[in-house]
Amino acid sequence: MSQRDIQDRFEELEAGRILGDLSPEESREWDELSKAHGFAPDLSLELAAAAIEAEFAQAKTEAIPAGIADTVRNSMGKFTAQQPGGAPAAIHFPLWKRLYQSPQAAWGMAALFAMFLVANFIAKPPVPAGATPITNNPISPEKSRELLFTKAGDLIESEFGGTENYAGMSGKVVWSDSLQEGYMTLASLPPNDPSRNQYQLWIVDPARDEKPVDGGVFDIPAGKSAAVIPIRNPLPVNKPQAFVITLEQPGGVVVSKQEIVVALAKSF
Length: 268
Hints:
Blueprint: H1 3-19, H2 24-37, H3 43-58, H4 66-77, H5 95-100, H6 103-123, H7 141-151, E1 155-162, E2 170-176, E3 181-187, E4 198-204, E5 213-218, E6 226-230, E7 242-248, E8 261-266
Antiparallel strand pairs: 1-2, 1-8, 2-3, 3-6, 4-5, 4-7, 7-8
Helix pairs in contact: 1-2, 4-6
């Protein structure tokens, strides 16, 4: 063992000695290292520990109800290690154990539990009898579309027309430039298999860019005859001229080749 390892081991034992939780074997090891290498006890740590203990000892003692004291001590006892086998050679009372056994510490633990209960009450106040609990459920696309009509003063609304292979579909698109929010209402659009392809919306805004802006990918589940789809544009759009739905690979594409155009809605 190197000198540095010996020094580290002595410091570890010294800390345990100050706290009073060394086993008999560790006490003998501390004594041997101290004599063999001339290590001196760290009086600064010992004085600090003594000062803490003295502070508790000198504090004004106030009786604590027996019920609270017993509850706190019994609870703390569950976390103390049990000595296997027979009785130990020596009983050690670490500083932390002497502190929590004092009346002041019992009051402190009781106050700590009380503060925890108050904080938990504030964070989750009880729901009054007869009241409906408030939930954080997200608003459905259908409800969000209805709200858009009440809060936007610049709505544009256009009809979707399906291309040759999708002539049976119908739908509408509503959009607000000021809120950058819009929704598609689609009906009779064939369901898609997300593992093979997905629908993707494109927003044509020539004033912004000659390339259409991605409006998000979406699916039409089997058995669903109508759906409200929110528009998810990552880039700002102003005065869109048209909305185009295409069928693309799963996850969509950055630039569409428009090989399969599903529907078109013009806003002018």
